[in-house]
Amino acid sequence: MLIGVLLLMFVGGIALAQAVCDPKEVTLRWLRLGGLIALALLAFSGMAMYLACERMDKVVLILSTAIPAAAQLMLTQLGHRRSQRMAAGATWVWACAVLAVVGMGADATWLARGLSAPAAGGLLGACLMTMLLGHAYLTAGGEMTQKPFLRLVVLLAV
What we know:
The protein is mostly helical. Helices cover about 80% and strands about 0% of the residues. The protein has helices at about 1-20, 30-50, 55-65, 65-80, 80-100, 110-140, 145-155. Helix 2 packs antiparallel against helix 3. The protein is globular. The model has no long low-confidence stretch (mean pLDDT about 85).
């Protein structure tokens, strides 16, 4: 179960990074890459939960995060930058809700785990996307400024 939750945390963080960045200031390739990584990690997360013989309702709940994540990728492919940003925000919110539900245990610390998982996921995914954005900045030529990179560094600091 732990690996499935960890991968879902990455997905939430990726979505947070894409929602925080102004889509007009980054390349569509970076947005597509984030969407593809998120969907791949969701598939691995669902498979890990399934193989761990977890309850199927948790597996379905984790895989339901693919709906807003796929919407983000689809809207990116269509070039709808504002709409893809909203879909990325919806993915973050849904992933946080799923993490709170899946992270609940029988003891009294379920609330602390339910609140700390989205924060840790935001840190994990935002760190990954900041690294990829730095690389995209170097390879994009003159397409991007450093503004989105600095925004993600501030997100990491917070």
